[in-house]
Design a protein that fits this description.
Helices cover 67% and strands 0% of the residues. Helix 3 packs across helix 5 (67-81) and helix 3 packs antiparallel against helix 7 (97-104). By secondary structure, the protein is mostly helical.
Length: 105
């Protein structure tokens, strides 16, 4: 698993190089400690939807909850996974969608 995590982290760090965009510093050790089981069912749903890149308002409509609640879930996701931004959470959601779906049970 560690090799796969390093490969994914490398893909993130080099994906913007050709476009002249600097990628966020997402290192393999930080990603290897992700524990999706720490998230609630609703947080897992929100995390998967973050990968779509939609705004909180649209995510709230899709889930039938308030935009403020989406923001609260997102903040909780970022904190529980040890990330720093919503953007990092979206990248994690994209890279680990299968693992997240597995954690949902």
């Amino acid at each position: 698993m560690a090799v796969a995590v390093q490969d994914k982290a490398h893909d993130i760090s080099t994906s913007g190089v050709s476009a002249g965009v600097s990628a966020p510093d997402v290192s393999a050790p930080r990603l290897s400690g992700l524990d999706f089981s720490a998230l609630t069912g609703r947080e897992l749903e929100v995390l998967l939807l973050l990968a779509t890149g939609e705004q909180n308002r649209r995510l709230a409509r899709r889930l039938g909850i308030a935009e403020r609640t989406v923001r609260a879930h997102t903040a909780s996701i970022v904190r529980k996974l040890g990330l720093t931004t919503r953007f990092e959470a979206a990248i994690v959601a994209h890279l680990y969608a299968d693992d997240i779906r597995g954690a949902r049970g």
